Amino acid sequence: MPRVNEKVSYWMLVLPALSIMVCFYILPVLGIWEIAFTEPKAGVGNFVKMAGSNAVRTSFVITFRVAAITTVGCLILGYIVAYAISNFASRLTPLMVALVILPFWVSVLIRSFSWIVLLGRSGLVNDALMHAELIERPLRLMHNELGVLIAMIHVMLPFAVLPMLTNMRGISGIYVQAARSLGASEWTSFRQVYFPQTLPGVLSGALLVFVLSLGFFVTPALLGGGRVLMISEYITYQIQEFLNWGLGSALSVALLVATALVLLISARFVNLRATLLERK
Amino acid sequence: MTDTTDFEAKRDIADIAVERYKQGRLTRRGFISAMGALGVLPVLGGRALAQTKEIIVVNWGGTAKDVLQEVLCDTYTAETGIKVTVDGSGPSAGKIRAMVESGAVVWDLCDSGAGSAIILEQQGMTEAIDYSIVDKSKVLEGTAYNNGVGNYVYSYVLATNPKLLGGNIPQTWEDVWNVKDFPGMRTFRKSVRGQLESATQARGVPLAEIYDALSTEDGIKASIAKFRELRENIIVWGSGSDSQNLFLQEEVAIGNIWSTRAHLLKDQMEDGAFNVSFNGGVIAPGIWVVPKGNPAGKDEVMKFIAHGQKPELQVQWLEKIGSGPINPAAAELVPAELAAFNPSSPENLATQILYKDEWYAKNQVSAEEMYVDALIN
Question: What pTM was computed for the model?
Answer without folding.
Answer: 0.83
